[in-house]
Amino acid sequence: MTLEQFKKKMKRIPDGPGIYFFLGKNKKVLYIGKATSLRDRMRSYFATDLHEVRSPLIANMVAVAVSIDWRKTDSVLEALLLEASLIKTYKPKANTDLKDDKSFNYVVITEEEYPRVLVIRGKNLKEAPTTKKIFGPFPHGMQLREAMRLIRKIFPFRDTCKPQQGRPCFNFQLGLCPGVCNGMVDAKEYRRTIRHIVLLFEGKKQQLLKAINKEMRVAAKDERFEEAKELHRQMYALQHIQDISLIKEEYRSATLATDRSKRIEAYDVAHLRGSAAVGVMVVVEDGEANKAQYRKFKIKTAKAGDDSGALKEILSRRLGHDEWPLPRLIVVDGSTAQINAARNVLAEYGMAIPVVGVVKDEKHRPRNISGDRELIKDRERDILLANAEAHRFAVGYHRKTSRKELTL
User: Fold this and answer.
1) Model-level pTM?
2) Using CA atoms, how far apart are residues 201 and 82, in angstroms rounded to an integer?
3) Residues 126-180: pLDDT tens digits?
4) Widest distance between CA atoms in the chain
5) CATH superfamily placement of domain 3-76+83-95
6) Which CATH number is correct for 260-407, 3.30.420.10, 3.30.1490.20, 3.30.420.340, 1.10.260.40?
């Protein structure tokens, strides 16, 4: 689809939350995304620097698309849930190829007298408890966590506590568990809440509102006023969803994805003689550390003591996040082995982001920077800052993780 074709449609695209589609020949769905502002997000795909800002997979998808479509929603929360439902239905290649299915998140409702609502990684689905419903895949893990917080405030549910255990769980004290643990809610009433959650995840908001309204009227007629009051609260909350946290996260992803002019990402690995290995990503933009974008990774597949393998795992998982902007430069801690490990991962993803390595002396002080000298010359201060931040963040994360393991 050309920029001129897009401009003809742009005036009709709403400036509000919703789902958008890139379509190929015969209206085949190539890609599905969500946005706080459909107009702004869809416009970003036709920027002149798309190949630099987005992954090659997305850039190629836009090039072969012949048309676009969209579906407006009342909130970002609904857009997030609808996106997952439609990805599951259509399985667009540009969505499913962005990362391994095992990396996606799913919401599982268990088959129990008091069902649990759990967020589970795709790779762990086979080990999950017997399930009644599975929703997903959800491509955006951080946004899903924010969404689950919002949903749980509207419809308190059980996740870890044991039914009828006698004492109230911690989530009950926060108003996030309806009282499965201490007998404050019976199985019939709780299953009604689960039905409400299912309707919400299925994108059937209007059906859900009608069901709650009917239940509220019946409860009021039977003089069950506390129950009617709670149902009224739920209906009002659904009609006035305050998804500010989701809007902020969506806005951050959208704006960062359009400007990476001076973004540097640095990676480091920390472990104790090969055990309890963790890794981190830090970001330096315009000469300043952007701590809001730091990320932590527990090493899961690399062998103990294999720093290059751990780095490859971290980078592979990071590049699976298409919603994160790509950097202009990647900094690793080490020399040839680490640089080559990073370059190999980037090559697998079809990316040509330059990589430099900071070589340390025996006291872990920077001794040299390996890589393209012209590239390093004007960025030496930022490279060293990024490397120092990555080391500090990795060591702090490792110490925290190690303390937790020792107390178990």
Assistant:
1) 0.63
2) 8
3) 888 888 999 988 877 778 888 999 999 999 999 999 998 888 999 999 999 999 9
4) 79
5) GIY-YIG endonuclease (3.40.1440.10)
6) 3.30.420.340
